[in-house]
Amino acid sequence: MRKRERNLYLSNVAVEEALGIYFRQLEGILQNLPVEKVQVIEALGRVTAYPVFAKLSSPNHNAAAMDGIAVRAKVTFGASEANPKRLKRNLDFIYVDTGDPIKEPYDAVIMIEDVVEIDEETVEIIKAASPWQDIRPIGEDIVAHEMIVPARHTLRPVDIGALLSGGITEIEVYKKPRVGIMPTGSEIIEPGEKMEEGKIIESNSRVFEGLVKEYGGEPNRYSPVDDDYDLLQERLTAAVEENDIIIINAGSSSGTEDYTVKLIREMGEVLIHGIAVRPGKPAILGIIKEKPVIGIPGYPVSAYFVFETFAKPLIRKYVGQEIPPRPKIEAVVSKRIVSSLKHKEYVRVKLGMVGNKLIATPLNRGAGATMSLVRADGVLIIPQNSEGVEAGERVSVELLKDMEEIRNTIVSIGSHDLILDIIGNLMHRQPGNYHLSSAHAGSLGGIMALKRGEAHMAPVHLLDEMTGEYNVPFLRRYLPDMEVALIKGVKRIQGFIIPKGNPKNIKGFEDLVREDIQFVNRQRGAGTRMLTDYELKRRGIDVARIWGYEREMTTHMAVAAAVASGSADAGVGVLSAAKALDLDFIPIGDEDYDFAVPMQYLKEEMIEIFIKVLQSQEFKEILEEMGGYKLEHTGEIALVRRG
Amino acid sequence: MRKRERNLYLSNVAVEEALGIYFRQLEGILQNLPVEKVQVIEALGRVTAYPVFAKLSSPNHNAAAMDGIAVRAKVTFGASEANPKRLKRNLDFIYVDTGDPIKEPYDAVIMIEDVVEIDEETVEIIKAASPWQDIRPIGEDIVAHEMIVPARHTLRPVDIGALLSGGITEIEVYKKPRVGIMPTGSEIIEPGEKMEEGKIIESNSRVFEGLVKEYGGEPNRYSPVDDDYDLLQERLTAAVEENDIIIINAGSSSGTEDYTVKLIREMGEVLIHGIAVRPGKPAILGIIKEKPVIGIPGYPVSAYFVFETFAKPLIRKYVGQEIPPRPKIEAVVSKRIVSSLKHKEYVRVKLGMVGNKLIATPLNRGAGATMSLVRADGVLIIPQNSEGVEAGERVSVELLKDMEEIRNTIVSIGSHDLILDIIGNLMHRQPGNYHLSSAHAGSLGGIMALKRGEAHMAPVHLLDEMTGEYNVPFLRRYLPDMEVALIKGVKRIQGFIIPKGNPKNIKGFEDLVREDIQFVNRQRGAGTRMLTDYELKRRGIDVARIWGYEREMTTHMAVAAAVASGSADAGVGVLSAAKALDLDFIPIGDEDYDFAVPMQYLKEEMIEIFIKVLQSQEFKEILEEMGGYKLEHTGEIALVRRG
């Protein structure tokens, strides 16, 4: 029996332990970092290897600190308003501009505003000058031989200025480590290449390039290498020659074609394979010919965190710097997060300041959720040996964005619609620099978030089965003690999202029970789900008979994507989602998609800007172009009084 | 009578008003910012001009989320430990690696760990698969047509990754404004050129280059232009053609050769000349051919603040960004700062966390004090219409450094010595990333700072006239209620600093009263001043007879610099200062230069590292090479008990 070869056995070493082992092993290199000479005028952002002492003083001569006249102080003694003194040019004084050298016999400057010009050769003064007044003495700013910057200092523009003023033109800095980035995998294609099924656009290496630059290294990206052992070996051999640090992307897991660990083991040493962290577990820390070689897993979020955890401190050490810890802030978690005792976990969160509470809402935790990195305001670290955090718990979050930006952000939790992106974008063009952050929790989820004081706004579209009225009954029912306003949004067309051409000839809800129809549903609490259930109930259809009823998606676009990929034959959603993926659409009816806002936030400037955008001509035009929406009473405010 | 032509009349417009006037005038340009297409892989740090929507979904196919086998879920139903199911390869299952596409008829993945391989063609499972388990559906990460990044977003590495994954290869970003930087002045020389009297090394333009880059513009520096009206006009005409924003450095004041304002007025329009800010008053805001032209004064600190105040927001607007306000923090001012009602003032401060108080100590406020920018941890802004702040007052400080770094800094206030720089530098090489910040206030000033709880440490060298003992008596006298330790430092040789060759034949204190001798003194409270006064008193010399006795410098190096420049014939100071400027030295005697530290800080890790450095072999070797010091009991700790 031939067994398929797999590296099934990953260890589960704690992050800190792995860092300790790896950096101890690299100590020899890290204590003898290469240094190079560069021109000071090109040294911005570089890190000094040694302290730098001034060669020249600045100013390098006694200099006039003002425009005026240089005089001998003794000659001016006794001058007063009652007894002005006249001075002769080139005998008693000379004219000087700021910065001009002051030399013997002159030892004071009188500013021009205090000088009365009598004729071309004569001036009059009415106040004596004290010796050395308004003269910048030699070395006032920088004295030769004083230290301008210490070692291990990252040079800023002002440092460059001071170094040049101190007569320094060349400077010794740590050499930028050359970081070889080797994307591998037969399934990857380069950006812009034709997309075919089963292919993935290679993007991790481009993220690494950017991060290497930001941390002070020099990225050296190679073309992607196919999953071919001999080829990989040849390329890795070259990369080890050509770089200081080598990053191999993907092939670090335990799949059949994951050669990386085998390669590193054969060519050098694998110190760690498998780290107690999520995302990022299959990382490899190795050394080949005394050079660090890091195997980074392929999922983009794993790739990012493994880079940040291991490659970043390594690059920073090469340029003589420790990593300053990211600024941290205390926040309240809006949802329960369950984590495993087995690993440390990095949870990306959106942050929002609601009232005086900073709320952290976890984003998609998947290792492949690139967009969770794009959208994250911070990272919540759940330590190994913790089972997670409860909703409402206070946690410490590493900030990825500026607190000012977070404070200027409307936290919207509730039903998702594409128009939220459009509104957010239009808000950016308004004064005040306000943002809209939207988390998708369904309409009811949004109302619950308002109840817990965790959102400024909940987008809702909830149909009351009894009255046929939208939204207001639900706000009365679920927020009985809260004064809340409903900002009228849009009328939205809901319908079946089906493949182009309707190949299975779906006409309505009755078709969903057919054996050949696979449905895709929305999550409980979503307005669309409630509409679906309402329509099914009305027709007396047993949901147990619908194939795929239990498959839940959290956005319209995810439903559309399931249909587009052929994994479902129908779902319920909005026209814009169907149009976006070029699918067909069978309308079911209009619904009211509105925004619930507690009264206390209604007068905040960012909410006012939000309303202004809703009412704008530009917003109207964009929606008309998109189709699927009607604007009626948009931007009007209805107060919700108790039932 | 021919009058020398001067621009005597500067206005005094408030900063905010000036910004308002200028940006209103530039509104036309700022609302039609040029946009360019760039490759996404080269777009790091660029700012999006429009929102960017995904072209492709990611993943672009349903994909295996694990290594394992793809199956039809229905076929697995009923499998259990009691009743395992056998599956046939290529009929019931296929092997898949993470990321492989999952296509009809397969609709679930079972991870390899849950699969028992029977032979090459057969596997056994003991658990049913649910439909769509361990499959990443198409669009799970990014759905085609969803917004990846909004407009006016600065692209980070993770954004680049998401854009590429979303099928975007080109992107429209705001064009980097080309910023022409024109240094002017007949007195300036380029770095590396031979220094001659009256010359100044041109460094401002290099600071501007760095700042322009940091803020997202493209610097375009010109060679320095002499103060020649026609030449300046020719060069400015070209610069206006070639750039989006033009900066003319110096020539913005009211001196005879300050042509800038005249030039801008003739070629375009001067909107503001003279701003109520210090440093930076003579700034010019002008427009030529619809392009902003900013005249920036020559003093480096003025130049920096005028750039930050006017050029920075302008550059940021060109790239579609507002400036986020600098992070601010509350601190206690350690010294009174008097400021004028007439202008806003930017005071550079050192910050230090002493106990639980954040202390702000003002640095040199001169417009020429480049080193105050290099050393600053923050900027304290004193508003126009304020007369300044009192010692002990709580103020808000804009941070220039990371708070973590500030927390890890020993705040040393007291007598200055070159060895402080050396110790600080050696501390950097120790673990823990600790810093030493030293403010020069003289020995007594340092003791007073300890008393007020504003420093961790005071370097002192105070001779008790009665006992001949150093330092301890003063700590007993001035800190009677404080438990304080004295860390023994070095024996330091004090003496006369005199010009090379001793041209005036100075032999001792008696010579200081000679008519041809100009003395330079240290400030009151400095140990060296007390030594000087002690020796003069002992000899019965009347200080009123010493020319220059009232001219006070605050450091040894400043005294040496005065002697080196010929503005003084003698001063008292340490050997190292004399050697640094190649001057002669007549020893007076040794003194004890020690470090007073309140007991409560003695056990802090950063103080322990400080002591470790004092005791190190490396420190000893450096001091031996410098000369002028003896090491006796260095690093030992003496407790000071009440007398």
Walk me through this protein's architecture.
The structure is a homodimer of 643-residue chains. The longest helix of chain A is centred in the middle third of the chain and has 19 residues, at 300-318. Chain A starts with 14 loop residues before the first helix and ends with a strand. Chain A has 19 helices and 38 strands. In chain A, strands 31, 32, 33, 34, 35, 36, 37 and 38 form an 8-stranded mixed sheet that branches. A 6-stranded mixed sheet of chain A has the order 16-13-17-21-20-18, sandwiched between helices. Chain A is flat. By secondary structure, chain A is an alpha+beta fold. The first copy, chain A, folds into 5 domains: 15-30 and 177-318, Molybdenum Cofactor Biosythetic Enzyme, Chain A; 35-58 and 141-174, Molybdopterin biosynthesis moea protein, domain 2 (Alpha-Beta Complex), CATH 3.90.105.10; 63-136, Beta Complex (Molybdopterin biosynthesis moeA protein, domain 3), CATH 2.170.190.11; 328-400, MoeA, C-terminal, domain IV (Beta-clip); 462-640, D-Maltodextrin-Binding Protein, domain 2 (3-Layer(aba) Sandwich), CATH 3.40.190. At the A-B interface, strand 11, helix 4, strand 15, helix 5 and helix 9 of A face strand 11, helix 4, strand 15, helix 5 and helix 9 of B.
